[in-house]
Amino acid sequence: AADVVALPYASASSSAVLVNAFAHARPVVATNVDATSEMVINGETGFLVPAQDSASFAAALVSMLAQPALSVSMGHAALEYARRRHRWPCIASETATLYRAAIEGAKTTR
User: Fold this and answer.
1) pLDDT band for position 86 (50/70/90)?
2) Whole-structure pTM over 0.85, yes or no?
């Protein structure tokens, strides 16, 4: 029963917690590291703050919690983002596209 999900990562190659937060229409406050910077649309699905900056992290959490309508709006945007980008058909399509590009690239380097 969270209003916002806090992800104060020092580094993260991926985050199942982030994807689950989005799937449950919850916005995130996350540090701007590695994969989180690719997954969180700052100001739309949550807030990104610099890593190791606890004051900025706390301020972003307070801002989110002080504005329930913003939190709900970002949560809905996060859910829509998850539906567009993190469903298996989308993942399969993107994976197939990457494989095709790799095969084509290998053909041209021979």
Assistant:
1) low
2) no
